[in-house]
């Protein structure tokens, strides 16, 4: 994807640390444990990536809604909905890939932490979509967090799977 | 789930670098941090912090002078919201070390010259202001500052220079006066009077053709939308009347007066403004956005009047804070609330809306402003949402005279904002729009907002949130319209082929199979099909596109897969210009209830070269789309198309430059080791492919630029045709030209110029000679002239 241009640090002075701060667009602590490759390869990909993971979606949120919201930070190349591995229905996450890194960065700065379908959604850098990564990794087929969740969430199938099993 | 164990080292095989702590860079970081943080929330007073820091820096001068100079110059340029904090610091340093003061002033002048040379005018203004405030800190002698301003103002006497050049120098002079007017007037009143009167006469004689193009509202009530220099002049005049008493700016140097007045001052070296060159690009003029005045906040502290200089200072400050911290929304909120008591909600809102509605474009990405306002609402949930609702109401009331581009932004902001607050809004308050013609701005606005709200949620939600009376403005249910769907349609030509296609596609047919099915479709245009079947056949296109889009209607991804899978068929059917146009028509017929789907399909078809940009432009101006011509989504599609074209040209240009650079590097390498000059033949071979590549890329660039130029020509031509038709019809019929349609259309034409002004500048000569000639109706020509005035 197209790399983001450097900041306008022209003139003899350059820029200042305090103004370089870009915490919203920085890498989080999370690293996908299923990633194949070294940690440093993973981080290199994350720093160059134009793909975002989006979490805490309602199961009913559509690709169209995601396209509308995330389109506000730039042209979207692709949206890949996260699916329950068994049921093959939406299970509350997706990937959004932009053509340009800068657009993904703006999504991290301004769309992360705001609402979609009345839910605060969370975005994070992703190393890049690979076939198979669109499926939930929880035992029951959905996301891991929905396995162990204790609370009732109407937009995510009600109670967590473990609680449901009781 | 197994957890792979990763070694902490980087790629295996690389020697592990030993980290050596390098002291100097640590100290530099520490110095930068100390300097940047002064003035922020602290347990000690600002004065004692400044004094302490001055002491630390003075001690570090022997070893780190150049670093300190560089850091101070940088904060002067990049942290204008803390200008007086840093001028005071420099003042204290100058008092302790006269030489350092002199070197700092020299470094600042160098930096100013550099900024002007590379057209960094925004930052240059900060530097000029900083220098002028150094007069207050006894670092620079007032007479030498006046002399610099005399050189600035004399730029207005230059001949054959763009007005925007003179504008900048006048602006730099005037906008420094809130800080230093008092001191300069006290020391050199005669000279200052002369400068002010020269300024006044310049402002009187400069032309303001550009103003209508940049105003958010076309009406002057309740708040006049003033040209920025006129507004600033009024503020300066009032300041002078008030004997230069300015009450808002924080002036830490006053506390140090006894120390500073003992300091020796420096004289600024004579400053000659760098001359105008062909390549010089100056900032565009602006119109000041006024939405509130002191009558709007009866309970809050008195908001400074629009011609008070405090208003200027407060707003400048808030704009600077946004510019400094646009990436860090939480920091922005903190900084903004530090600088402006939060009870003064209105200046915040005014600044944010001013930027959001700024013409030609907002300084930052639109979505940022939505998020900033949400952050402010989170910070002040008790008061800000109400004020914001009031502001929205005010904007709604004035929709009739609001520029169409600004209405677009208002629609985007408001719908996105509502989606973060469960779409709660008292729609009944806006029932007045229900009695109006649907094309009028208010009902149009509500319709577009509801459509955007639907895109962020779903159709039934919108039906639920609006009162029943608003159903006439509610968006259509975004379902696909398949003309061959019903048994009752079986008499339609192509019906049986459509059925055939449906079965074939469901059975995973290949492109070839599709072609053979389509062969049977007769061509209504020609009596004798030329056998190959590859000429423009609208019925083939209709049957194929309708059927495929219908089968793939489930989601965007389904439709994109369909486009990809049958790309070959699409390319063949849409080979001719008429074919492309017809594909677009059919897409519209199928998806006219779902504008969002139309937009993403058009985008995909351009990117996969099924249609080209010119086809989209022609389609938008076609009679089939006349009914939707004033709808927001049409213009989103057109501007997105233009942007794709522009990005394409830039991309190829970049490729060309990169390949040229590679060739240059290769030559350099060859020249440097020229001992083996027997290898001339092999190096030619190395060059060959690169040189060929460059030739090919150059051709590609030329062809892309020609396509881009053609696109703009098509768009402008169609606008001219459409508008001329309307004007002629009105004139012969004796009706008023200014219908809602006309206002929308002429402002859409303006929008093309404004949104793509940099590219269009390249084609000015062609436009002037070919399209915007003197014979054109003056209504249309005025738009072109206003555009020319922006950089004149």
Automatic annotation (TrEMBL), chain A:
Where does it mainly reside?
Answer: nucleus
UniProt keyword annotation of Transport present: yes
Report the GO molecular function annotations: RNA cap binding
Xref: PROSITE patterns: RRM
Q: Name one GO biological process term.
A: nuclear-transcribed mRNA catabolic process, nonsense-mediated decay
Q: Name one GO cellular component term.
A: nuclear cap binding complex
Where does it live in the cell?
Answer: Nucleus
SMART domains registered for this protein in UniProt: RRM (SM00360)
CDD domains, A to Z: RRM_NCBP2
The record's InterPro entries line, in alphabetical order, gives: NCBP2 (IPR027157), NCBP2_RRM (IPR034148), Nucleotide-bd_a/b_plait_sf (IPR012677), RBD_domain_sf (IPR035979), RRM_dom (IPR000504)
* Domain RRM residues, every copy: 50-128
Q: SUPFAM superfamilies from the entry?
A: RNA-binding domain, RBD
A Pfam family it matches: RRM_1
Q: Which UniProt keywords apply?
A: mRNA processing, mRNA splicing, mRNA transport, Nonsense-mediated mRNA decay, Nucleus, RNA-binding, RNA-mediated gene silencing, Transport
Complex and partners: Component of the nuclear cap-binding complex (CBC), a heterodimer composed of ncbp1/cbp80 and ncbp2/cbp20 that interacts with m7GpppG-capped RNA.
Q: What does this protein do?
A: Component of the cap-binding complex (CBC), which binds co-transcriptionally to the 5' cap of pre-mRNAs and is involved in various processes such as pre-mRNA splicing, translation regulation, nonsense-mediated mRNA decay, RNA-mediated gene silencing (RNAi) by microRNAs (miRNAs) and mRNA export. The CBC complex is involved in mRNA export from the nucleus, leading to the recruitment of the mRNA export machinery to the 5' end of mRNA and to mRNA export in a 5' to 3' direction through the nuclear pore.
User: Family per UniProt?
Assistant: Belongs to the RRM NCBP2 family.
The name under which this protein is listed is: Nuclear cap-binding protein subunit 2
Source organism of this protein record: Piaya cayana
Automatic annotation (TrEMBL), chain B:
Q: Where is this region: Disordered?
A: 1-28, 663-691
Name the UniProt record assigns to this protein: NCBP1 protein
Q: Which Gene3D superfamilies match?
A: 1.25.40.180
Where are stretches of biased composition, namely Basic and acidic residues?
682-691
PANTHER family in the record, alphabetically?
A: CAP BINDING PROTEIN, NUCLEAR CAP-BINDING PROTEIN SUBUNIT 1
Q: Which GO terms describe its biological process?
A: 7-methylguanosine mRNA capping; mRNA export from nucleus; nuclear-transcribed mRNA catabolic process, nonsense-mediated decay; regulation of mRNA processing; regulation of translation; regulatory ncRNA-mediated gene silencing; RNA splicing
Record's keyword terms, sorted = Coiled coil, Cytoplasm, mRNA capping, mRNA processing, mRNA splicing, mRNA transport, Nonsense-mediated mRNA decay, Nucleus, RNA-mediated gene silencing, Translation regulation, Transport
The molecular function terms of the Gene Ontology recorded here are: mRNA binding; RNA cap binding
Show where the MIF4G domain sits. Answer: 28-240
User: Per the UniProt entry, what species is this protein from, by scientific name?
Assistant: Piaya cayana
The text of the family note is:
Belongs to the NCBP1 family.
Which cellular compartments is it found in? Answer: Cytoplasm; Nucleus
Gene Ontology CC: cytoplasm; nuclear cap binding complex; nucleus
């Amino acid at each position: 994807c197209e790399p983001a241009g450097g900041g306008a640090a022209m003139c003899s002075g350059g820029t200042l640390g305090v103004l370089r701060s870009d915490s919203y667009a920085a890498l989080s602590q999370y690293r996908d444990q299923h990633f194949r490759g070294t940690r440093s390869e993973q981080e290199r990909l994350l720093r160059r990536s134009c793909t975002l993971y989006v979490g805490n979606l309602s199961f009913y949120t559509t690709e169209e809604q995601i396209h509308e919201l995330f389109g506000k930070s730039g042209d979207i190349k692709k949206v890949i909905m996260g699916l329950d591995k068994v049921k093959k229905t939406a299970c509350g996450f997706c990937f959004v890939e932009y053509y340009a890194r800068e657009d993904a960065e703006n999504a991290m700065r301004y769309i992360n932490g705001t609402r979609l379908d009345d839910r605060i959604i969370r975005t994070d850098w992703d190393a890049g979509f690979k076939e198979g990564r669109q499926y939930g990794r929880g035992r029951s087929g959905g996301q891991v967090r929905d396995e162990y969740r204790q609370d009732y969430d109407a937009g995510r199938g009600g109670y967590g799977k473990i609680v449901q099993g009781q | 789930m197994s957890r792979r164990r990763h070694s902490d080292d980087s790629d295996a095989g690389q020697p592990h670098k030993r980290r050596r702590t390098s002291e100097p860079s640590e100290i530099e970081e520490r110095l930068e941090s100390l300097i940047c943080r002064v003035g922020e929330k602290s347990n000690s007073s600002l004065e004692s912090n400044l004094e302490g820091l001055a002491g630390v820096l003075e001690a570090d001068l022997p070893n780190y002078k150049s670093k300190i100079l560089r850091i101070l110059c940088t904060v002067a340029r990049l942290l204008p919201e803390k200008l007086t904090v840093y001028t005071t610091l420099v003042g204290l340093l100058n008092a302790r070390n006269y030489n350092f003061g002199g070197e700092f002033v020299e470094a600042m002048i160098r930096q100013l010259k550099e900024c002007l040379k590379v057209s960094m005018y925004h930052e240059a203004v900060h530097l000029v202001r900083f220098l002028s405030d150094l007069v207050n800190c006894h670092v620079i002698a007032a007479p030498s500052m006046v002399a610099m301003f005399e050189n600035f103002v004399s730029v207005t006497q230059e001949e054959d220079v763009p007005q925007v050049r003179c504008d900048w120098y006048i602006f730099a002079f005037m906008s420094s006066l809130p800080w230093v007017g008092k001191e300069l007037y006290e020391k050199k009143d005669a000279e200052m009077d002369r400068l002010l009167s020269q300024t006044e006469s310049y402002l009187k004689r400069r032309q303001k053709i550009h103003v209508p193009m940049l105003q958010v509202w076309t009406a002057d009530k309740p708040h006049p939308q003033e040209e920025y220099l006129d507004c600033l002049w009024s503020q300066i005049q009032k300041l002078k009347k008030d004997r230069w008493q300015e009450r808002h700016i924080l002036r830490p140097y006053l506390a140090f007066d006894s120390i500073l007045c003992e300091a020796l001052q420096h004289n600024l070296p004579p400053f000659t403004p760098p001359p105008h060159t062909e390549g010089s690009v100056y900032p565009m003029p602006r119109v000041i956005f006024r939405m509130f005045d002191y009558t709007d906040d009866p309970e809050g502290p008195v908001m400074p009047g629009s011609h008070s200089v405090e208003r200027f200072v407060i707003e400048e400050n808030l704009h600077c804070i946004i510019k400094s911290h646009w990436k860090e929304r939480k920091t922005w909120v903190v900084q903004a609330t530090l600088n402006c008591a939060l009870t003064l909600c209105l200046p915040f809102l005014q600044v944010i809306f001013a930027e959001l509605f700024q013409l030609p474009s907002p300084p930052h990405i639109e979505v940022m402003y939505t998020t900033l306002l949400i952050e402010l609402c989170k910070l002040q949930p008790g008061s800000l949402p109400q004020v914001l609702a009031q502001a929205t109401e005010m904007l709604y009331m004035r929709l009739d005279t609001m520029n169409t581009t600004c209405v677009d932004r208002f629609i985007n902001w408001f719908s996105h904002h509502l989606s973060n607050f469960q779409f709660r809004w008292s729609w009944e308050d806006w029932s007045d729009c229900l009695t109006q013609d649907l094309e009028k701005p208010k009902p149009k606005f509500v319709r577009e907002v509801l459509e955007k709200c639907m895109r962020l949620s779903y159709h039934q939600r919108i039906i639920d949130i609006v009162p029943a009376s608003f159903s006439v403005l509610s968006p259509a249910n975004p379902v696909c319209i398949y003309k061959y769907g019903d048994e009752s349609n079986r008499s339609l030509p192509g019906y049986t082929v459509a059925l055939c296609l449906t079965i074939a596609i469901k059975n995973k047919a290949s492109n070839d199979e599709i072609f053979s099915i389509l062969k049977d479709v007769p061509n209504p245009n020609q009596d004798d099909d030329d056998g190959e079947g590859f000429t423009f056949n609208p019925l083939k296109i209709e049957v194929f596109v309708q059927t495929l889009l219908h089968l793939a209607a489930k989601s965007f991804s389904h439709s994109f897969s369909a486009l990809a899978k049958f790309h070959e068929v699409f390319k063949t059917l849409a080979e001719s210009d008429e074919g492309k146009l017809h594909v677009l028509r059919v897409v519209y017929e199928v998806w006219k209830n779902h504008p969002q789907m139309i937009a993403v399909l058009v985008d995909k078809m351009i990117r996969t070269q099924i249609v080209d940009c010119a086809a989209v432009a022609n389609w938008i101006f076609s009679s089939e789309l006349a009914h939707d011509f004033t709808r927001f989504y049409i213009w989103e599609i057109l501007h997105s198309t233009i942007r794709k074209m522009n990005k394409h040209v830039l991309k190829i240009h970049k490729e060309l430059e990169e390949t040229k650079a590679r060739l240059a590097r290769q030559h350099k390498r060859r020249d440097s080791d020229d001992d083996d000059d027997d290898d001339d033949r092999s190096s030619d071979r190395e060059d060959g492919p690169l040189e060929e590549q460059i030739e090919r890329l150059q051709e590609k660039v030329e062809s892309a630029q020609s396509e881009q130029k053609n696109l703009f020509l098509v768009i402008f031509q169609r606008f001219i045709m459409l508008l001329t038709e309307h004007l002629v019809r009105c004139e012969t019929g004796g009706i008023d030209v200014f219908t809602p349609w006309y206002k929308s259309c002429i402002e859409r034409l303006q929008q093309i110029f404004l949104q793509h002004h940099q590219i269009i500048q390249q084609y000015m000569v062609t436009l002037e000679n070919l399209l915007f000639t003197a014979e054109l109706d003056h209504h249309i020509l005025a738009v072109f002239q206003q555009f020319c005035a922006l950089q004149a």
